[in-house]
From TrEMBL:
Localization of this protein: Cytoplasm, Cytoskeleton
A GO biological-process term: microtubule bundle formation
Basic and acidic residues bias (residue ranges): 133-142
Region (Disordered): 130-149
GO molecular function, one term: tubulin binding
Protein's name according to its UniProt entry: Tubulin polymerization-promoting protein family member 3
GO cellular component: microtubule
UniProt family annotation: Belongs to the TPPP family.
Amino acid sequence: AWNGSGSELLAAFKKFSVHGDHKAAATEMPGQKWAKLCKDCKIIDGKHVTSTDIDIIFSKLVPKTSRGMPYTDFKKALEMLAQKRFPDQSKEDALEATHKLIEGKEPANAGVTKVDKTGAVDRLTDTSRYTGSHKERFDGSGRGRGRHGREYLVENTGYVSSYRHAGTYDSKVKGEIHGIKNWGV
């Protein structure tokens, strides 16, 4: 016979009830925490018990006006799930096996958002990939050039910057004028 004290089950109930919300009371378990407990403790196996079953049991036991299920309803919910989760066992053995899945467990933190230190941040800070005026602010090793890289140096030549025929206007114009005069005479 199973000699579980129930205190470990109550401890797990409290831990899951307040997980992620330190202001929450450990006396009621909201539906979201109920689903997390069932998932983390492997009550949901995808074969006998699904997340839909979990939601249905919660809605049967907890009125819409309530914030969550109390511990007494939590134990009723486990009784309702036990036979479904362990169909080849007797009612008592199935309930014992279900309790053993939960006892001593804590909420898992898998899937909690972590700071991504690679990926987009690395791409955005890779100075070798900068284009346009931004690439002028860094040298080949990626170090900033300071004021020199930010200074906007204006060339007053009358040409657009990087124009490859800069300085050829006068010779073209003079050549054309002389050519026209000579051609017309």
